[in-house]
Amino acid sequence: AHWDLPQNLACVLAGRRRFTLFPTDQVANLYVGPIDFTLAGQPSSLADIEKPDFERYPKLAEAFDHALTAELAPGDVIYMPSLWWHAVTGLEPLGAMINYWWRDGPARMTTPMLSLKHALMTMAGLPPNEKAAWRTMFEHYLFCDDPVAHLPQGARGILGELSTEARQRLVAELSAALRP
After folding, report:
1. Is position 2 within any domain?
2. Of 9, 77, 5, the residue nearest 35 (C-alpha)
3. Residue that terminates a domain, selected from 102, 132, 152
């Protein structure tokens, strides 16, 4: 099983396919391999979804408790939300499928996976109390509805709407910080 960043419509053209989908909150139960390099491009589960070994991967049973499974025939279409884990199995010797991927949000956005990798690089060795403090900061600034509602629009800096010029300055700052 792996995830894709864009939303996905998959249409079976020939043969039959089984789709097994897991919500994003099952990541801890899917035994994901390395995230820095994969042949498929996305992190993947090390567990065989078609022949699960619950003895070797005991938390996988919890993931299956939350799984959705569908068997599709030619002409059937399935929607897979962004970041949902999924495994697709061909049920016949010959099959064909077509996908349509799209993303909501600005086209300029790169994958947040780069931000995750950077956070792992810079925060992995922090003491537990600092990690906990950074968790609080990330929760506040990234996941709260409006963490800067108390600030006037012009005083929000990168926490507000970024002008093209401000975005370019931020990109330059981040690029300089990442140079060896």
Report:
1. no
2. 5
3. 102
**Ramachandran category for residue 58: left, alpha or beta (phi over 0 → left; psi -120 to 50 → alpha):** alpha
Residues 6+ apart with CB under 8 A from 27: 85
- Per-residue pLDDT tens digits of the chain, which is 180 residues long: 999 989 999 999 999 999 999 999 999 999 999 888 777 778 999 999 999 999 999 999 999 999 999 999 999 999 999 999 999 999 999 999 999 999 887 766 667 888 898 899 999 999 999 999 999 999 999 999 899 999 998 898 889 888 889 889 998 998 898 888
User: Which residue from 14, 29, 8, 118 is spatially nearest to 74, judged by alpha carbons?
Assistant: 14
Spatial separation of the C-alpha atoms in residues 101 and 152, rounded to whole Å: 37
pTM (2 d.p.) = 0.84
Strand partners, 87: 20
- Domain containing 136 equals 112-178
Torsion-angle region of residue 157: left (phi > 0), alpha (psi -120 to 50) or beta?
Answer: left
